[in-house]
Amino acid sequence: MKGSGLFPTNMTPFAEDGVLYGVDQPGQFRAVKIATGERLWESWLPLTGEAESRPVYSGTAFVVKNGARFFLFNEKGELIIAKLSPKGYDEVSRWKMLEPTGKAFGRDVVWSHPAFANRCVYARNDKELVCVALAK
To answer: What's the pLDDT score for residue 25?
Structure first.
């Protein structure tokens, strides 16, 4: 079926309640029904910070769920807190955590999955490793 499914490159999609959330090859963040492959919605915001965008080939945003919200760490080094549902993407906050130091497809990227422990997030690029407290 044309226009169905999800084809990630560098990230592992998150599955919940029959819906898969992840970044498709051109760079859109999408929600897809697992049973049928039907695309429920898509957004460029998690990768580009813009409502509309040109393709971001092999676009990457790592997804980790925490309670009712999700942490997304995108290839621009931004940590995003968002709510994901079959109805849409709702961004709560965004913070630049690291500078991208790698190169891919003519752009600077951070392609390392963050780690979460002890109410902190740990992330690295090719030059530094940072630990940021997530607690108030």
So the answer is: 86
